[in-house]
Specification:
The structure is a single chain. The chain is of the alpha+beta class. Helices cover about 25% and strands about 35% of the residues. It folds into three domains: about 60 residues, Helix Hairpins (Orthogonal Bundle), CATH 1.10.287; about 220 residues, atp-gated p2x4 ion channel domain (atp-gated p2x4 ion channel fold, Sandwich); about 30 residues, no CATH class. The protein contains ten helices and 14 strands. The strands form three sheets. Strands 1, 5, 6, 7, 11, 12, 13 and 14 form an eight-stranded mixed beta sheet that branches. Strands 2, 8, 9 and 10 form a four-stranded antiparallel beta sheet that branches. Helix 2 packs antiparallel against helix 7. It comes from Pogona vitticeps (central bearded dragon).
Length: about 400
């Protein structure tokens, strides 16, 4: 117990009344000297090459603020037994006419003409098929129902009176969406074009620009089409080219639809002329294209066009629209010289040079053959003469360190 108390007391005494100060020792060793210089050179290369040259650590940065508007152009001609010969223009296949940083272009559809509210057989499936009125519940509405059941079991197809379904009060005739048309109804959409107008602002630097560059005039804009190599700054994109650039097949994608990303990257060095701040366009498919592992592939929704005849009877045309939604995503960062980040990175770089000293000390003191010799030269113990040497070492007039015994 007394030994423990003495040891604890000495520990407390050492913590309170001993002070460590660095000691500079010049080690004349080719290995240690070369290692020290190599570490310093690596740190210098990191600070200059990575921090200042590559990452532009001397610049203050700001993130982009952006707005996007779009305009689609293109005409498609179809000729079907249900609709006959028909022209489709922008007002028909762009739904809704304007979106927020996105545009939907209809490429395929299931159309149900002249629906009116009334009573009719429900769409045939295993949950709606019946044999008698007892199989139908009046007032029942299922998750996938087209209307409210009336409680009657009626013939579904006059050509086969044995097939019956529950009658519903709904928009009749009900939609039959079991089979998606192939090929896509508006397969000509591959040649439609999309004009993207993008305005950006870096508020910290009060810098604004648009993707229709000053060098682009009205004549050029009417005739150009974007191409990554020959025309990289034209803001007009052919739909088929965008899908192909994302590694997809347009005609396959047009059948059930999908989501495409048009990415605009503004990386601007404002220490250089403003003319060198230009957009870079890339394309990728965002939705899951692996149909084998997707329960609900593609992209679709329904909308209707309503009519009222002379007798006041309301009718509608229901369209289940499949198509491609183009999401325009704008990224960007601008940088400009500022003394504050420059000084911070210079100070950080200088502080890193201390790593070379620490690394060399660890190797010299713990891994080299002469580590004990180097430790003797590295550390020196000095007593406070005000306390008196005899107070600590008893009858000894000198400590071993002062006598040079180490």
């Amino acid at each position: 117990m007394g030994s423990c108390g003495t040891s604890c007391g000495q520990t407390v005494y050492s913590c309170l009344f001993e002070y460590d100060t660095p000691r500079i020792v010049l080690i004349k060793s080719r290995k240690v000297g070369l290692m020290n210089r190599l570490v310093q050179l690596a740190i210098l290369a990191y600070v200059i090459g990575w921090v200042f040259v590559w990452q532009k650590g001397y610049q203050e940065t700001d993130s982009v603020v952006s707005s996007v508007t779009t305009k689609v152009k293109g005409i498609a001609l179809t000729n079907t037994s249900k609709l006959g010969l028909r022209i489709w223009d922008v007002a028909d296949y762009v739904v809704p006419p304007q979106g927020e940083n996105s545009v939907f272009i209809m490429t395929n559809m299931i159309i149900t003409l002249n629906q009116t509210q009334g009573r009719c057989p429900e769409q045939l499936d295993k949950t709606t098929r019946c044999h008698s009125d007892a199989d139908c519940e009046e007032g029942y509405t299922g998750i996938h129902s087209n209307g409210v059941q009336t409680g009657r079991c009626v013939v579904y197809d006059p050509a086969n009176v044995t097939i019956k379904t529950c009658e519903v009060f709904a928009w009749c005739p009900v939609e039959d969406d079991d089979k998606v048309p192939q090929p896509a109804f508006l397969k000509a959409a591959e040649n439609f074009t999309l004009l993207v107008k993008n305005n950006i602002w870096y508020p910290k630097f009060n810098f604004t620009k648009r993707n229709i560059l000053p060098s682009i005039n009205q004549t050029y804009l009417k005739n150009c089409t974007y191409h990554a190599e020959t025309d990289p700054f034209c803001p007009i994109f052919r739909l088929g080219d965008m899908v192909e650039a994302a590694g997809q097949n347009f005609q396959e994608m047009a059948v059930e639809g999908g989501v495409m990303g048009l990415q605009i990257n503004w990386k601007c060095d404002l220490d250089k002329p403003a003319s060198r701040c230009v957009p870079k366009y890339t394309f990728r498919r965002i939705d899951n294209k692996d149909v084998a592992h997707t329960v609900s592939p593609g992209y679709n929704f329904r909308f209707a066009k309503y009519f009222r005849n002379a007798d006041g009877v309301e009718s509608r045309t229901l369209i289940k629209a499949y198509g491609i939604r183009f999401d325009i995503m704008v990224f960007g960062k601008a940088g400009k010289f500022n003394i504050i980040p420059t000084m911070i990175n210079i100070g950080s770089g200088l502080a890193l040079f201390g790593v070379a000293t620490v690394l060399c000390d660890v190797i010299v003191l713990y891994f080299m053959k002469k580590k004990y010799y180097y430790r003797e030269k590295k550390y020196k113990y000095v007593e406070d003469y005000e306390l008196g040497v005899d107070k600590i070492y008893g009858s000894q007039s000198e400590s071993p360190e002062l006598r040079g015994d180490q």
